[in-house]
Amino acid sequence: MISVARSVTAACALGAALAACGTAGTPDGARPAHARPAASPSATRTPVLTPGPGHLTPVFEHGPRTLGKTVALTFDADMTAGQGPRAATGEHFDNPGLIGTLRTLKVPATIFMTGRWAEEYPAQARSLGHDPQFEVANHSYSHYAFTDDCYGLPTIGADRMKSDVERAYAAIRKAGVPNPLPYFRFPGGCYDHQALRALSGIGVTAVQWDVVSGDAFATDADAVARQVLDGVKPGSVVIMHCTRSAAPTTERVVRTIVPELRKQGYRFVKVSDLIGETNGQGGNRPGSLTPG
Ligand SMILES: [Zn+2]
């Protein structure tokens, strides 16, 4: 039985709308497997993990620990289906300053975008989708939870999970992102066996993380930066947000952690690079010395 661990950070407990805080828990039976070459119609050369038994959606959490100091920063572009009125009255669910800083610092990044966000900010979505420095992936259309009890998010029924993800791909493409990746991040990071089964057949790899930045609802950029720097290991995936209203310190955090991690010898990569490295290590290659 797969369950989501529940070590909720203080920031997470404060609010639910931006609930991608979550944990670094490893659900049983959802370990990354060796992969096959690309299986998505949307991005034919993108590395993905091999599905589990019965085509169960595979879950990726971090890259290899022994192939050098690489780290992937990921940013969730959160906007919930019901937040249109708040955007209309001036709340900013985007963060163009953060994206500009990533460009200035030449930090590749993976953006997990909700379909609703792409509808609200199509010019930014298009710009990200055409910039090779970034890769755009799927964070659902509605940002509703795929399990019960997920930071107070509204829950989506199992019969609507697949269509919600497909609706997000349609919205992201319509906004002008030509090749959104076959990666999916569960809202709040909450999933179970039913959710993984509901998405089987779409060809997505679920992408979690092993480093929680704690930027959601944070007010102390230094504390967030420390948490990232303390947590990063070779192959890490860091979760952050590009949503000004609910993660106001993230740009400052990036300005701190990027030079520091580079000083420590880290190289910034995208999630696809880490999945590619994972697929390339050991396994079934002829002559491989990997035991077992
Ligand atoms: Zn989210």
Automatic annotation (TrEMBL):
Residues 25-52 are annotated as: Disordered. This is Peptidoglycan/xylan/chitin deacetylase (PgdA/CDA1 family). GO terms for biological process: carbohydrate metabolic process. Gene3D superfamilies: Glycoside hydrolase/deacetylase. GO terms for molecular function: hydrolase activity, acting on carbon-nitrogen (but not peptide) bonds. Keywords: Signal. Residues 25-47 have a biased composition (Low complexity).
